[in-house]
Design goal:
heterodimer, A: 111 residues, mainly beta, 3-stranded antiparallel sheet, 44% strand, B: 121 residues, 4-stranded antiparallel sheet
Chain lengths: 111, 121
């Protein structure tokens, strides 16, 4: 069981907006540690999608956005496209474990 | 262009050892902390180990502490993971990653393509 909880799957039609939640606790997200998001396309290595809760690396479309509130964070994808179909992971730091922690991952299906 | 290229994966028997390498290029290797992250077949990502830019500080997940050793050779721009007493649950694709930022705030901004470690008799 992952320290950060994500829904196993989400889906949406092309052009729609979807959100993926990442729920933590007072020792990680709630303690103020940054949340980062990674996208893993089928058969490839993960790629940094959002860092520092809300920031996009160069080259990441502005259709992707991140937010954080309390002990949770969210990834929003607007204008859904077929190529967005992938697994998405959140990641943060946990002070109780003194470890970096990942969410269990969410599979996005574009209908 | 930042590149991280892992090697050294393969088939090993339970209880055996293996050393992974990660050749880095396209950036000042000695300025960045580096991490190993693994992904068991069909499962999610798991942090394994991390090392500071000069190699003086290392971190390990509890699942590998005492069995794995992370190290780096900044003169060769290479990161290593020495794995011992391997178990079937260590079977995974192992990714070499670069950390951007501090221990508690950093993200993993570049990833290698991964190398598969299979633990089986």
């Amino acid at each position: 069981q992952s320290v950060l909880t994500q829904p196993p799957s989400v889906s949406g039609a092309p052009g729609q907006r979807v959100t993926i939640s990442c729920t933590g606790s007072s020792s990680n997200i709630g303690a103020g540690y940054d949340v980062h998001w990674y996208q893993q396309l089928p058969g490839t290595a993960p790629k940094l999608l959002i860092y520092g809760n809300t920031n996009r690396p160069s080259g990441v479309p502005d259709r992707f956005s991140g937010s954080k509130s309390g002990t949770s964070a969210s990834l929003a994808i607007t204008g859904l496209q077929a190529e967005d179909e992938a697994d998405y992971y959140c990641q943060s730091y946990d002070s109780s474990l003194s470890d970096w922690v990942f969410g269990g991952g969410t599979k996005l299906t574009v209908l | 262009e930042v590149q991280l290229v892992e090697s050294g994966g393969g088939l090993v028997q339970p209880g055996g050892s293996l050393r992974l390498s990660c050749a880095a290029s396209g950036f000042t290797f000695s300025s960045y902390a580096m991490h190993w992250v693994r992904q068991p077949p069909g499962k999610g990502l798991e942090y394994v180990s991390a090392i500071s830019p000069n190699g003086g500080i290392t971190y390990y997940a509890s699942s590998v502490k005492g069995r794995f050793t992370i190290s780096r050779d900044n003169s060769k721009n290479t990161l290593y993971l020495q794995m011992g007493s391997l178990r079937t649950e260590d079977m995974a694709v192992y990714y070499c990653t670069r950390r951007k930022g501090t221990v508690t705030t950093g993200s993993l901004d570049y990833w290698g393509q991964g190398t598969l470690v299979t633990v089986s008799s």
